[in-house]
Design a protein that fits this description.
11% strand, globular, alpha+beta, single chain
């Protein structure tokens, strides 16, 4: 077995249950940016969809984000939509395709995906999984089996996530727990 065949340690995964019309999720972006800056590719941050009924364009936004992911721009697209939650409430799906175009994505393909519903199963599966593990609002974070609810307050959540990630990374390195 060559060195290239040596299995790499599995990165810790942070699932972020998010709703793209949610102002609290927009405020959570600062924490996500800080986590990316601190850990880089040592932490996998996954966007998970949890559209809430109170926001009528959230389900379409989740589908559009999945199409953006197919085009290699999941987080940039999600962040661009979150930056305009109020406008999304007013303009709806037109804004979703407009943002895709602004990011250099195939906006027509995003529009087509919204029409043909090709990503509905992914969004539905995320939402069902979220409900099954107790997600009730957004943002909610899950890492190493621990659920952290950011819908009421972001206070202290990034620090708790960092504690868990540091512990997981230390365990992978075979570090001696002194």
């Amino acid at each position: 077995m060559s060195n290239s065949d040596t299995p790499r340690p599995v990165r810790p995964v942070l699932d972020v249950w998010c709703e793209l019309q949610c102002p609290d999720c927009h405020r959570a972006l600062d924490d996500l940016h800080a986590l990316r800056a601190r850990y880089g590719d040592r932490l996998e941050i996954r966007l998970r969809h949890f559209p809430l009924e109170k926001h009528k364009h959230a389900y379409a936004a989740a589908q559009a984000a999945e199409e953006a992911a197919e085009q290699g721009q999941a987080w940039p697209y999600a962040e661009a939509v979150l930056a305009r939650t109020e406008e999304l409430g007013a303009r709806g799906e037109r804004l979703l395709t407009e943002i895709a175009g602004e990011l250099g994505l195939d906006a027509e393909e995003v529009d087509t995906a919204l029409i043909d519903g090709r990503h509905m199963l992914i969004v539905d599966a995320d939402q069902a999984e979220g409900k099954a593990i107790g997600v009730t609002g957004t943002p909610t974070y899950v890492i190493d089996g621990e659920r952290l609810d950011g819908g009421k307050s972001q206070e202290g959540l990034r620090e708790r996530i960092e504690e868990i990630v540091d512990r997981l990374l230390a365990g992978q390195d075979g570090a001696d727990p002194a």
